[in-house]
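Section 4.2 – Deliverable D4.2 (structural model, holo form)

The reporting period included a commitment to supply a predicted holo structure for the target in complex with zinc ion. Inputs used:
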Amino acid sequence: VYSSVEGLLRNPKAFFTYGRENIVNVLQAKPNTGHVVLGNLQQLGVIGPIVTQNIDDLHRRGGADHFYEVHGHFRSASCMNCSNQVPMGDLIARLDQGEIPPLCWDCGGILKPDVVLFGDMMPADFQEASLLANICQTVPKLMVVIGSSLTVSPVNYLPLEFNRIVIINNTPTETDYRAELVIREQIGQVMGKLWEEILELNDGKSPDPLPPGFNFGIMIAYLDNEVRFLQNQKSRPSVSLDSLTKHFGLVQADIKVARSIIAHSPQAPRQPLERAILDFYLQELNRMEFEIDSLISAMGLISQEEGSRIPKLINDYYNESLRILMTYARQENVLPEIVEKMATRAFGIYNFWTSANQTLGIALPAREELDRLKKIISERGVKADLNFN
Ligand SMILES: [Zn+2]
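Output (structure tokens):
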């Protein structure tokens, strides 16, 4: 009765009596540690968009500004007939005056909270989240699932669109088998510990947002994937010996270039958190180089010098960021802050590219690329700071 369109139409009194209590309870809830830490991480630029099944508005109130509420929210209600929208306060006031069901002032249709009930279509947020899920991440192709048992369709299919999945939930989920890391603990505890570690890495101080050009992670994630592929070739080769030798040579060259880009990036005035992340990346590169060397000798291969694919990676990443920006900029209903965020991101990658160019002579994108970016931004009236480093 309480969670379906059919229930609403059959017994509006039961639906709205229960609904009023439920709405008020949900709106009075306070963000918990998990919401606040996620909000902080998003403000820092450590994580990308949040996709939530919750309708409680707590991600926004926890400090996040880029999220998709794929099951809707309780901030407003809409007419089931003409889609006219009213603030939730209006709906509650009408219920309190005994108006059940509350009716639209324009057309007399029933006003329904803007949440997804059984029998409803998925909201636009779901389509957008699906579209951007794979390309709009700070670590490409990675999704972290937090506090969901992944049983409600179609949202539970979303993680399967990602190459890499991490799951934090206190009970098992049906997608655990696909995850590279499963943490089965209370979310609040895990997120609280995570934030403590971030503070510790930043000498106990709350960190400032990472610079928009801080995109070194894409190289590490990419190489990590490559090294995994080569490790798999040891037990069950899927390619010829020739192409395997070439692949090893490419990865060796990529590791060298990635290390050089990190080593040549400006150190001052980096905050301790940034230095810690860069140190971690360098350790990762050492680990990967060691593993590649061991694999080469274990498989009896002969090293072969190749050119690095990192320049192409950066190029592709930049183009992808432009594509994301244009996808957002085209849409009428997207908040200007989100477009600004995407624009800043694209500029950050452009900057990253520029600094790689200065240290390694990697070819820069054509001048028109930057002009194209600036045009999108000025058309949308975005006030992005174009002079960051
Ligand atoms: Zn209406």
